[in-house]
Amino acid sequence: MFIKPGIFDKFGNVICGVSTRFGKEARPPFDFNMSFKVGDDADAVKKNRKDFFDALGIDGSRVTFQFQTHSTVHNYVSETCFFSGSDGLYTDKSGLFLAVNVADCIPVFVYDSENKIAAVIHSGWKGTQQRIVTHTIKTMTDTFNSKPEQLYVYVGPGISINNFEVGKEVYDLFEEEFKEARAGKLYVDLKKDIYSRLINTGVPAENIEVSGYCTYGDKELFHSYRRDGEKSGRMLGVIGMK
């Protein structure tokens, strides 16, 4: 039902997971969909979310959501709420959980092991190119004195360079090491870009887990808007502290 990263296993207080296409009552074409915005039945979505949250062992009423706009905007969460126009959330409060919608863009989950801070980031090509992960970590550093060497990060399932074909206008925005041209087509590696920014920020390589899953390529497991268009559901990624 969900993907669980190993990077947080040593921390008994951290809960983190990303849903997949499959759950107790997954129904085509949206399968185990977590979004109310794709045309799926609202009651089915509510049931899917409850099943996912139950599997994680969390109370769904304690989850904060955001309407993602491919920005660098990130917000502090002190109590359960909804943010309109936000692509990152962070909290120092136990018992609160932070959600990100996933359907090809890269979800990034951060945990400050010293100060007990959790963060979730939605990093599509715009957010990646504009360094939303770097901006969020800087805010954590400025606000809570987070130190990069104390951060643990999961770069979750998202589209891989093998399938992320872009136009020249997007291709030209990225540095050479994060893109390639083959067979007359242009591709960008969002995960590699995010990983590099984390390293440059000072997060140790051993503190970073990068998912090998591709939402587009692993079609039996994940929704993908780029692959399935209007018939695509959405996954949810969640992180928080007990």
Q: Got a strand count?
A: 15
Distance between termini?
21 Å
Helix percent reads 10-25%
**Please, what is the CATH homologous superfamily?**
CNF1/YfiH-like putative cysteine hydrolases
In CATH, the architecture is 4-Layer Sandwich
The low-confidence parts are none
Which structural class matches the secondary elements? Answer: alpha/beta
Main beta sheet, described? 6 strands, mixed
Characteristic key phrases:
242 residues; alpha/beta; CNF1/YfiH-like putative cysteine hydrolases; 6-stranded mixed β-sheet; 22% helix; 28% strand; globular
Describe what this molecule looks like in 3D.
The protein is an alpha/beta fold and 242 residues long. The chain has a single domain (2-160, 208-241), classed as CNF1/YfiH-like putative cysteine hydrolases, CATH 3.60.140. Helix content is 22%, strand content 28%. It contains six helices and 15 strands. It is globular and about 50 Å long. The two termini are 21 Å apart.
